[in-house]
Write a structure and sequence with these properties.
cell projection, 12% strand, Ubiquitin-like_domsf, nucleus, 552 residues, PH-domain like, Ubiquitin-like (UB roll), 5-stranded mixed β-sheet, ERM_helical
Length: 552
């Protein structure tokens, strides 16, 4: 067979894009496929077995419609696009999520869809409940709260609260995060599937949970009511109140639902009860309402029958899975606890090791400091010893100096006393010398006067003698013989001799006087020198006394 023949036998396909709440998938579908074929392909790709809750939704002409399972995909009124987009969503809701949602994937898809409806304000939720739901959503996403890891601002990129709640209260993002984190910290130890289930258990009690609303009218001209279809029945609401229905029809109390063009009729099981008729805007709306009513009624009746073998197996598997997960979670919790304890012990050991290392380092530093201090102290001791020796030597020298100074002081005192005595003696001698000098000066004056008078007398005598000689003895040489007058001449000669002798005595006296005067001057000079020496010694003693006083 040729390759061309193989290509001719390959079926024609078209592409579809399946959009779940958190992912997108693309498939190639055969042209003859029905809606159920595409739906089963998507369920197999997701690993979903509880298929009866879900459907494929698409939007045509502004109206949301569900893909019919029993008709070909391309034969239905779907968007003309490539690829064709379908939303894989929950079409029917359980009455009790904890009992009916068996698979974890089913639970996760419901959790994501209900969370989106609450954030998009399709389901009304009070602000307090939204904070609690947000804390479970954070627990499902991030696991247990860890203040060291989940620092302030870690929820900044997450959408957790409806915009209506954010507008209603004037709180900052940090304040909302603080409120959510306070609840989040209390969910420690809750696994992801358990946190999602707790979220759904709170959400299923909300008035608008699982309700599909359609505008209706009691007559052809006015649209003043809302018809709601959910897992429990059909409810009639006023246009402005979607919380409390004006009238409700439980599935167990409805006998038949039918429509004729835009008119829809609800017949109660009680034949005596009034038949409820209303009008919708389009025939497609009535078909959609009827489709939802049939699906919810079938599930309602199915819940109240004995479970099929498949459901029993699924529940048993779910119980086993829950038990296994519980044991696994307990094991993980135990392992986590042991790991945390081991980490704490490790941290404690590391801290202790670090502390010991720090203590050892400090001890080494202290030892080094001690060694340095010991060396320094040894040096200081050596220096102190040397200083002590030097001080002892200085003390000895000081003691010797003190003794010397004492001796010097004593000597000085003695010398001073002797000097003072010598000074007193010198003063006395000086006084005596002055007196002697005065006396000698007076005597010298007297002697000089006597000498002058003697010389004057001698001169006069010589002159007189010459005069007498010239007059009386002119021929004294020519007559040398002795005569009676010789006696007078002899007397004269005796007088001359006496004069000569007297002259000699005067010279001798004058010489002695001169010699005594020179002796006196010599003694005066020596005495002055001695006085100068005494003054110098006294001055030196005074200086030494001052210095010895300073040393003391």
């Amino acid at each position: 067979m040729s390759i061309r023949g193989l290509k001719k036998k390959q079926p024609k396909t078209f592409k579809v894009k399946i959009i779940t709440v958190d992912a997108e998938m693309e498939f190639s579908c055969e042209m003859k496929w029905k809606g159920k074929d595409l739906f089963d392909l998507v369920c197999r790709a997701l690993g979903l077995r509880e298929t009866w809750f879900f459907g494929l939704q698409y939007t045509i002409k502004g109206m949301c419609t569900w893909l019919k399972m029993d008709k070909k995909v391309l034969d239905q009124e779907i968007p003309k696009e490539d690829p064709i987009s379908f939303h894989f969503l929950a079409k029917f809701y359980p009455e009790k999520v904890e009992e009916e949602l068996l698979q974890e994937i089913t639970q996760h898809l419901f959790f994501l869809q209900v969370k989106k409806q609450i954030l998009d304000e399709e389901i009304y939720c009070s602000p307090e409940a939204t904070v609690l739901l947000a804390s479970y959503a954070v627990q499902a996403k991030y696991g247990d709260y860890d203040p060291n890891f989940h620092e302030p601002g870690f929820l900044a990129q997450d959408e957790l609260l409806p915009k209506r709640v954010l507008r209603q209260y004037q709180l900052t993002a940090e304040m909302w995060e603080e409120k959510i984190t306070a609840w989040y910290a209390e969910h420690r130890g809750i696994a992801r599937d358990e946190a999602e289930m707790n979220y759904l258990k709170i959400a299923q009690d909300l008035e608008m949970y699982g309700v599909n609303y359609f505008p209706i009218a009691q007559n052809k001209n006015h649209t003043d009511l809302l018809l709601g279809v959910d897992a429990k029945g059909i409810h009639i609401y006023s246009i402005n109140n979607r919380f409390s229905p004006n009238k409700s029809f439980e599935w167990s109390a409805i006998r038949n639902i039918s429509y004729s063009e835009k008119e829809l009729t609800i017949k109660p099981l009680d034949k005596k009860a009034e038949v409820f008729k209303f009008f919708s805007s389009q025939l497609k709306v009535n078909k959609l309402i009827l489709q939802l009513c049939i699906g919810n009624h079938d599930l309602f009746m199915r819940r109240r029958k004995v479970d099929s073998i498949e459901i029993q197996q699924m529940k048993a598997q779910a119980r086993e899975e829950k038990a296994r997960k519980k044991m696994e979670n307990q094991r993980l919790a135990r392992e986590k606890q042991l790991r945390e304890e081991a980490e704490r012990a490790k941290e404690e050991l590391e801290r202790r090791l670090f502390q010991l290392e720090d203590e050892a380092r400090q001890a080494n530093e202290a030892l080094l400091r001690s060694q340095e201090a010991a060396e320094l102290l040894a040096e200081k001791a050596q220096i102190a010893e040397e200083e002590a020796k030097l001080l002892a030597q200085n003390a000895a020298e000081a003691e010797q100096e003190r003794q010397r100074l004492e001796i010097t002081a004593l000597k000085t005192k003695e010398e001073k006393r002797l000097m003072e005595q010598k000074m007193r003696e010198a003063e006395l001698i000086a006084v005596k010398l002055v007196k002697e000098s005065d006396r000698r000066a007076k005597e010298a004056e007297h002697l000089k006067q006597d000498l002058h008078e003697a010389r004057e007398a001698e001169r006069k005598a010589k002159q007189k003698l010459l005069d007498i000689t010239r007059l009386n003895y002119p021929h004294m040489v020519k007559y040398p013989q002795y005569s009676p007058t010789d006696t007078r001449d002899a007397n004269f000669e005796k007088g001359s001799i006496k004069l000569d002798l007297k002259d000699i005595d005067l010279k001798r006296l004058s010489f002695e006087i001169e010699r005594e005067r020179l002796d006196y001057l010599e003694k005066s000079r020596k005495f002055e020198d001695r006085l100068k020496e005494l003054k110098s010694e006294i001055h030196a003693l005074k200086l030494e006394e001052k210095q010895s006083g300073l040393y003391s």
